From TrEMBL:
Source species taxonomy: Bacteria, Pseudomonadati, Pseudomonadota, Alphaproteobacteria, Hyphomicrobiales
Keyword Transport set for record: yes
Pfam families xrefs: ABC_tran, BCA_ABC_TP_C
GO molecular function: ATP binding; ATP hydrolysis activity
UniProt organism field: Pseudorhodoplanes sinuspersici
Keywords annotated in UniProt: ATP-binding, Nucleotide-binding, Transport
Record has ATP-binding as a keyword: yes
GO cellular component, one term: plasma membrane
Gene that this polypeptide is encoded by: livG
Protein name in UniProt: High-affinity branched-chain amino acid ABC transporter ATP-binding protein LivG
């Protein structure tokens, strides 16, 4: 069964068609990328998949079930978790606390448990702490667990966001331009982390403008232009596709960068 199937997704904003009958399948294994020039409709597509926009037409199937227009929290609770173009961290909380917050969809302790601290809630807290520390190590921020998010350089904040998203134990992780604002070394590290997330069994679907990252990291790429899917294939196939090169207007260089 595919992890995700997008079937004829269309989004109109008044007279503007941001997505026009886009369909594709994301298998359970691997790293999947959506690329396309500015305004091609990538973010709108992500917003529909993750429940932030209701499609005008079409369906989103996750693990074989219809999740079209479900609220984002319910979609996340099912295991489809996303990050945003601009890191949305709790700047005043520490690295560890931020990741613990990301885990709350997988824990049952509420306010009463936090106040009364029954044995099961204490056990849950210990587990949350352990998992959060493992994830911080996993993205290479192990030595900064007690540092405030606001004190991290931007590149590390983006990695922290990935750790926080992983804390919710997603089976499908949507990354919205994870390399935006990262330098060359940080982008290489990000590529490695994405591959390792995939190796741990989480399917990764990303939107990205950094072609080097996409070509190196993705197993399969969908290309959008003016809201339509114009191609899909392996990185090699996509880079050689004349329609894709044309869409990027002189982008042959960009694609082979
Ligand atoms: N809420 C909205 N209301 C009206 N038009 C919108 C809205 N959101 C997006 N659009 C339009 O839909 C089209 C697709 O935008 P979208 O942000 O999905 O593209 P994108 O591929 O993510 O672009 P970028 O790479 O620049 O982030 C654009 O023409 C955009 O102006």
């Amino acid at each position: 069964m595919n992890r995700l199937s997008v079937k004829g997704l269309t989004k109109r904003f008044g007279g503007l068609i941001a997505n026009d009958a886009v369909s594709f399948d994301v298998p359970a294994e691997g790293v999947f990328a959506i690329i396309g020039p500015n305004g091609a409709g990538k973010t709108t597509l992500f917003n529909m998949i993750s429940g932030f926009h209701e499609p005008t037409e079409g369906r989103v199937m996750f693990e074989g079930e219809d999740i079209t227009a479900m609220p984002p929290e319910l979609i996340a609770a099912r295991g489809l978790v996303r990050t945003f173009q601009l890191a949305q961290l709790f700047q005043d909380l520490t690295v560890l606390e931020n990741v613990k917050v990301g885990r709350h969809v997988r824990t049952r302790a509420g306010l009463f448990a936090a106040l009364l601290r029954p044995a099961w809630a204490r056990q849950e807290e210990t587990n949350t702490d352990r998992v959060a520390r493992e994830l911080i190590d996993f993205v290479g921020l192990g030595s900064q667990a007690e540092v405030r998010a606001s004190a991290l350089p931007y590149g590390q904040q983006r990695l922290l966001e990935i750790a926080r998203a992983l804390a919710a134990e997603p089976t499908l992780l949507l990354l919205d331009e994870p390399a935006a604002g990262l330098n060359h070394d940080e982008t290489s590290r990000l590529s490695e982390i994405i591959r390792r997330v995939s190796a741990r069994g989480t399917t990764v679907l990303l939107i990205e403008h950094d072609m080097q990252l996409v070509m190196k990291t993705a197993d399969w790429i969908v290309v959008l232009n003016f809201g339509r899917k114009i191609a899909e294939g392996t990185p090699d196939e996509v880079q050689r596709n004349p329609g894709v090169i044309e869409a990027y207007l002189g982008g042959a260089e960009m694609l082979h960068d």
